[in-house]
Amino acid sequence: MNSDRINKIYQSIEKLKNDLKAEYEKLQVKYDFLIKNKKIIFSEEIKSYQKSRLKENVFSYIFTANIKNLVSVPFIYSIIFPAIFLDLILTIYQFTAFPLYWIPRVSRKEYFVYDRRFLKYLNLLQKINCLYCSYVNWLFLFSVEIWSRTEQYWCPIKHSTGGYVEGRYANHYADYWDPDKFNEIFNENICFKKK
């Protein structure tokens, strides 16, 4: 059956994600750093190299910037207002609705990663830009996870086409053409059954 093949592909994707994580761990040796309590610790030699040779002065960074980059800054940073609003609404939503259905809340710590602050070759403005991009990207991933859990509870049906990236729980959904499996999942609420 075709759905067996789809489920195998989902399993392959999970395996590839684990392989990718292992490759990132190998980079710790190559670039001489370790991760301790979410803090990146470089060797003194690497810190010195990053700081002395690669860091660009903030004023030089601004005054030599391409005009198109400067013109786009207000548009890029204007997203902060709807982003903060979305963050607030998502937080309220999951703290009020999720407990009603025994859906586990999404941990912010798992989604917000700002490891670029440990890079000595970034100047202050570059670090602020990286923080901003990290926050907005994190927020969208956080949002996808919240809505994937919502979808898993209310509508655990795979889509008819594979043209869009489904949430990480989709491999547990009923196939688009399988009303019996949908009813089984939905009626038993196996998605977030309170133990």
In words, what does this structure look like?
This protein has 195 residues and is mainly alpha-helical. The protein has seven helices and two strands, in the order αββαααααα. α5 runs parallel beside α6. The longest helix is centred in the C-terminal third of the chain and has 31 residues. It is extended. Keywords: Coiled coil, Membrane, Transmembrane, Transmembrane helix.
What is the H-and-E element order? HEEHHHHHH
Are there runs of 5+ residues with pLDDT below 50, and where? none
Q: Structurally, how many domains make up the residues?
A: 1
Number of strands: 2
Task: Summarize the biggest pleated sheet.
Answer: 2 strands, antiparallel
What's the tally of helices?
7
Spatial shape: extended
Quaternary: single chain
Structural class: mainly alpha
Helical content class: 55-70%
Identify the strand order in the major beta sheet: 1-2
Cα end-to-end separation: 32 Å
Question: Whole-number average pLDDT?
Answer: 81
**Beta fraction:** under 5%
Return Rg in Å: 22 Å
Coiled coil: 6-37
Keywords: Coiled coil, Membrane, Transmembrane, Transmembrane helix
Transmembrane segments: 58-77, 83-103
